[in-house]
């Protein structure tokens, strides 16, 4: 994958659909990485919103658990009802712990990784941009030297033709100077071409190396997000499990609700069974 991506990226730049020239192949690859960084930022923001929802839900559960409605219910049903309200407080605590773990084990690592990823992208971008500028500068030097050589050769040719028409010592001296300048221009062109080729070779090597590094960072980013999303689902499973445990005492007390026993206890407490109406005697 890395070789194919690097090769395609190096062989040709992509034409701008707007018709405004071309977009550097490496720039396209870099934009893909920057898009990944943005996606990671949005994922961390999503988790942050999930945390807010959990915190608000926990707050409302805790508030409801303190509600005084039906607080005077008595007997085994009263015990079950009290446990129903207590279970809300327990569940609120579960959700608070879940939100805290989401922050420390999912949101925060995603944000920290994103910052480091951003630094790596900048470093790669600046490095390749500098090499590309250098390459463009070397290319401009080659073109300038090529133009200079053409002019010197044209000048030499013109002076040679003039010499054939009119022989003179001055003309011969001008031809010698023109020949030296033409030779010098040829040497300058060869030097510029050599410098361009060196820059091109360096650029190619660094492009391949940086491409591989970008792809390694992409794999690292995806794997890192996958691991923390797995952590998210694990925390959700644990939250569901703990929530289930808050309901179990309610289930147990509801099974023990006994209206007959409650009536007996109420009668005993209020002593309604001690004195009963009797027939009156004359």
From TrEMBL:
Keywords noted in UniProt: Coiled coil
Pfam families membership: FCH
Keyword Repeat: no
Keyword Nucleus among record annotations: no
InterPro entries the record matches: AH/BAR_dom_sf (IPR027267), F_BAR_dom (IPR031160), FCH_dom (IPR001060), GAS7_F-BAR (IPR037957)
Coiled coil segments of this chain: 132-173
Domain of life: Eukaryota
F-BAR domain segment(s): 13-262
Name of the molecule in the record: Growth arrest specific 7
């Amino acid at each position: 994958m890395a070789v194919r991506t690097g090769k395609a990226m190096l062989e040709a730049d992509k034409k701008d659909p707007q018709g405004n020239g071309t977009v550097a192949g490496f720039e396209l690859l870099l934009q893909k990485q920057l898009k990944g960084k943005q996606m990671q930022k949005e994922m961390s923001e999503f988790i942050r919103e999930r945390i807010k929802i959990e915190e608000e839900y926990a707050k409302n559960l805790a508030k409801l658990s303190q509600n005084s409605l039906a607080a005077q219910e008595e007997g085994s049903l009263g015990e079950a009802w009290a446990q129903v309200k207590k279970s809300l407080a327990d569940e609120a605590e579960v959700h608070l712990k879940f939100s805290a773990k989401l922050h420390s084990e999912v949101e925060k690592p995603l944000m920290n990784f994103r910052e480091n990823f951003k630094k790596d992208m900048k470093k790669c971008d600046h490095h390749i941009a500098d090499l590309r500028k250098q390459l463009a500068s070397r290319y401009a030097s080659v073109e300038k030297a090529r133009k200079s050589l053409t002019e010197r050769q044209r000048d030499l040719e013109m002076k040679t033709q003039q010499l054939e028409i009119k022989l003179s010592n001055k003309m011969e001296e001008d031809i010698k100077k023109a020949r030296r300048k033409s030779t010098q221009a040829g040497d300058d062109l060869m030097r510029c071409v050599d410098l361009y080729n060196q820059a091109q070779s360096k650029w190619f090597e660094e492009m391949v190396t940086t491409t591989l590094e970008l792809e390694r960072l992409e794999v690292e980013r995806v794997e890192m997000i996958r691991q923390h999303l797995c952590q998210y689902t694990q925390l959700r499973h644990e939250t569901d499990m703990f929530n289930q445990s808050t309901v179990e005492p309610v289930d147990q007390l509801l099974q023990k609700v006994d209206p007959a026993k409650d009536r007996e206890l109420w009668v005993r407490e209020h002593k309604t069974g001690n004195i009963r109406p009797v027939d009156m005697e004359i």
